[in-house]
Design goal:
The chain is mainly α. It has one domain (3-222): CDP-alcohol phosphotransferase transmembrane (TM) domain (Four Helix Bundle (Hemerythrin (Met), subunit A)), CATH 1.20.120. It contains 7 helices and 4 strands; from the N terminus they run E-H-H-H-H-H-E-H-E-E-H. The strands form 2 sheets. A two-stranded parallel sheet has the order 1-2. The chain has a two-stranded antiparallel sheet with strand order 3-4. A hairpin with a 2-residue loop joins strand 3 (183-186) and strand 4. Helix 1 crosses helix 3 (66-91), helix 3 (66-91) packs antiparallel against helix 6 and helix 4 (96-120) runs antiparallel to helix 5. The longest helix is centred in the last third of the chain and has 31 residues, at 193-223. 30% of the residues are buried.
Length: 237
């Protein structure tokens, strides 16, 4: 999510844990890409990686080893999605409005397809997959609201951003594959390990949405304090 980097009117907050790694590696890779590769190619590759991830999650119904294809797709998605904006900046070919729209539109598609495909697998119930979609989109809405209201593009929360989310999914896939996705009975309801991980992630996202929503509201209250109409004198029209 780097489409707003070229917009000097907005402060960008991206204090992710893997930020130092990305700031060193991504420009290094960008300058070594062939001249015929353009940011749109990378955005398209990211969407193709999304389809690979979705198909591989569905194929886990037949063999859990497809989780490794999911992980490979997530790495490819990170590479393409993170590099498109970096390539535009390195070559000084930023397209501010177009880049903003295409980047976040493709992110929305990717989020829905990946989470929905989780629900199509035999690892997670669809209702929890949909809950995860709602939780992630809630955070996305918060990012957009802060950008519009305060001119701050904030894509990291407590050290977590899109890169860390992908890494968390990869680690979850490995754990589920290693332990063969065991089931647990909690309060009389059956949960798979993957479902518990998804439920925990959704609760964290909702908690961040509410807490940072309150924090941003307080900041805006100070920046835009209430205005009171001065009382008019008797007889004034």
């Amino acid at each position: 999510m780097d489409a707003l980097d070229s917009n000097s009117s907005k402060a960008r907050i991206n204090n992710i844990s893997l930020g130092p790694f990305e700031r060193r590696v991504l420009p290094w890779m960008a300058v070594r890409l062939p001249e015929w590769v353009i940011p749109d190619h990378l955005t398209g590759l990211g969407l193709a990686a999304t389809l690979i991830i979705g198909a591989a999650y569905w194929l886990t119904n037949f063999n859990s080893n497809w989780l490794w294809v999911v992980n490979a797709g997530l790495v490819l998605h990170w590479w393409a999605d993170s590099l498109d904006g970096t390539l535009a900046r390195v070559r000084h070919i930023e397209r501010e409005r177009y880049g903003l729209f295409v980047d976040h539109f493709s992110d929305a598609i990717s989020t829905f397809v990946i989470c929905f495909a989780m629900g199509l697998s035999n690892f997670m119930e669809m209702n929890l997959a949909l809950l995860l979609i709602i939780a992630y989109f809630s955070m996305t809405i918060l990012v957009y609201l802060v950008t519009i209201a305060r001119g701050v593009f904030k894509i990291s929360f407590v050290g977590f951003g899109p890169t860390e989310v992908r890494l968390a999914i990869i680690i979850s896939n490995i754990i589920v594959w290693w332990f063969n996705n065991p089931t647990f009975n909690i309060l009389g309801k059956r949960f798979t390990l993957f479902s518990l991980l998804a439920l925990g992630a959704a609760l964290v996202l909702f908690s961040l949405f509410l807490s940072f929503g309150v924090i941003e509201g307080r900041k805006l209250y100070k920046l835009d304090p209430p205005k009171f109409r001065q009382p008019t004198k008797s007889g004034d029209q």
